[in-house]
C-alpha cells in the first residue's frame, strides 16, 4: 500500500497526541497516512518503515520538546526515519510543538544538520485549525491532488463536447431529426452540474479556513505566514461569492458568507492600521529592524488601492 504522508514522532510526550490528531485530520480529507501504531502489521518492522517512507510523498516530523536530542544515538528510530526520508528525497515538513527549541546545526549528527533548514510550522493548540491549514498547504501531496483535480476537471469539457458531437452525429443519421437546441441544452445541463459539484467540494474548505482566521488574526500572529494565510482566506471568500454569481444556488446562505467576508475585511483594516502605527513607534526609537518587520506585515495586509497608506512609513525606512 502506498501512502501520501508518513508521520514521525516520539511516543512519549506531547508528540503522540498531535501525531494522532494530524492523522485523523488528514485522513478525513482523503490522505493516506502512515502512523506506526496503526499501520505496522506482520513482518519485519524496519522493512515496513523503510517501505512506507519510500512510498510516501511527505514526511511529517512532529517536533516535540527534546525530539532531536536522542538522535545522537545511531540506533535511534527517529534518526533512522529522518535519514531515510532524506535519502529518498521526501518533502520533509516539521511541526514545532510548544516548548520545542531547534538545536544548532553543529550539535546535530552530520546526517541531520539540514533539518533546521527545512520548512517548520508552529503548532498552536489554541489555533490548531489555522496551524493545520498552513501545514496542509505545504504538503507535496496537496499539490499533487490539486494537479490531478485540475487535470480531471479539464476532461469535463472534452467529455461534454464528445457527448454533443455524438448527439449531433446521431441526429444527422436518423430520419427524424431533433432541433439542435436539444443537444445544446443537454450540454449546458451537464456542464453546469459538473461545475456545481466541484464548487461544492471546495466551498466547505473556504468556510473552515475563514472560521480559523476569524479566531487567529486578533491575537497578534507571530509570523508573516499567518498574515498571508489571512489574506488568502479573504480571497477564498471572494472566490466563493464569485462562483455563486456565476452558478446561483451553490451557496445556501449568501448573506452568511458575505458577513464572514466583511468580518475578515474589518479585521484586515484594523490590523493594517495597527501594523503601521507600530512601525512608526519603532522608528521613533530608532528600532529599524522591528519597524521594517511591521511594515512588511502591513504590505501583506494592504490592498492595491491602499498603497498610499504605506508611503509615509516606506519613505522613512528608505532613509534609514
Written overview of the protein:
The protein has helices at 15-28, 36-39, 45-55, 77-87, 128-137, 140-173, 181-216, 224-246, 254-284, 288-301, 308-318, and strands spanning 5-8, 33-34, 58-63, 91-96, 119-122. The chain is an alpha/beta fold. The protein has two domains: 5-123, Toll/interleukin-1 receptor homology (TIR) domain (Rossmann fold), CATH 3.40.50; 147-318, no CATH class. Strands 2-1-3-4-5 form a five-stranded parallel sheet, sandwiched between helices. The N and C termini lie far apart (58 Å). The model is unreliable at 38-44, 152-171 and 173-192 (pLDDT under 50).
Task: Compose a concise summary of this entry.
The protein is α/β, with parallel strands linked by helices and 320 residues long. It is 62% helix and 7% strand. The chain has two domains: 5-123, 3-Layer(aba) Sandwich (Rossmann fold); 147-318, no CATH class.
Largest sheet: 5 strands, parallel
Percent helix range: 55-70%
Order of helices and strands: EHEHHEHEEHHHHHHH
Based on CA atoms alone, the radius of gyration comes out at 25 Å
Distance between the termini: 58 Å
Structural class designation: alpha/beta
Sequence stretches where pLDDT stays below 50 over 5 or more residues: 38-44, 152-171, 173-192
| β-strand number | 5
* Helical segment count: 11
Whole-number mean pLDDT:
75
- How many distinct folded domains? 2
Amino acid at each position: 500500500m502506498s501512502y501520501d504522508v508518513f508521520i514521525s514522532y516520539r511516543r512519549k510526550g506531547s508528540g503522540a497526541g498531535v501525531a494522532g490528531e494530524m492523522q485523523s485530520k488528514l485522513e478525513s480529507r482523503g490522505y493516506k497516512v502512515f502512523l506506526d501504531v496503526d499501520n505496522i502489521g506482520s513482518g519485519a518492522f524496519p522493512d515496513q518503515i523503510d517501505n512506507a517512507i519510500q512510498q510516501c510523498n511527505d514526511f511529517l516530523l512532529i517536533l516535540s520538546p527534546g525530539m532531536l536530542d536522542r538522535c545522537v544515538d545511531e540506533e535511534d528510530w527517529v534518526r533512522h526515519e529522518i535519514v531515510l526520508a532524506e535519502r529518498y528525497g521526501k518533502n520533509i515538513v516539521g511541526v514545532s510543538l510548544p516548548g520545542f527549541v531547534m538545536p544548532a546545526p553543529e550539535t546535530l549528527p552530520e546526517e541531520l544538520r539540514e533539518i533546521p533548514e527545512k520548512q517548520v510550522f508552529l503548532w498552536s493548540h489554541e489555533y490548531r485549525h489555522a496551524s493545520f491549514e498552513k501545514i496542509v498547504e505545504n504538503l507535496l501531496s496537496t499539490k499533487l491532488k490539486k494537479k490531478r483535480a485540475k487535470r480531471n476537471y479539464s476532461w469535463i469539457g472534452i467529455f461534454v463536447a464528445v457527448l454533443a458531437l455524438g448527439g449531433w452525429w446521431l441526429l444527422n443519421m436518423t430520419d427524424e431529426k431533433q432541433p439542435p437546441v436539444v443537444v445544446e441544452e443537454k450540454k449546458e445541463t451537464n456542464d453546469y452540474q459538473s461545475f456545481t459539484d466541484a464548487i461544492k467540494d471546495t466551498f466547505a474548505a473556504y468556510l473552515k479556513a475563514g472560521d480559523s482566521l476569524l479566531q487567529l488574526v486578533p491575537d497578534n500572529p507571530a509570523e508573516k505566514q499567518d498574515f498571508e494565510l489571512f489574506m488568502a482566506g479573504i480571497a477564498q471568500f471572494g472566490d466563493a461569492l464569485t462562483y455563486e454569481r456565476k452558478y446561483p444556488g451553490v451557496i445556501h446562505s449568501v448573506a452568511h458568507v458575505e458577513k464572514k467576508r466583511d468580518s475578515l475585511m474589518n479585521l484586515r483594516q484594523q490590523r493594517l492600521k495597527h501594523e503601521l502605527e507600530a512601525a512608526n513607534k519603532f522608528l521613533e526609537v530608532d528600532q529599524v529592524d522591528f519597524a521594517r518587520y511591521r511594515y512588511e506585515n502591513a504590505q501583506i495586509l494592504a490592498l492595491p488601492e491602499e498603497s498610499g497608506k504605506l508611503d509615509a512609513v516606506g519613505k522613512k525606512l528608505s532613509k534609514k
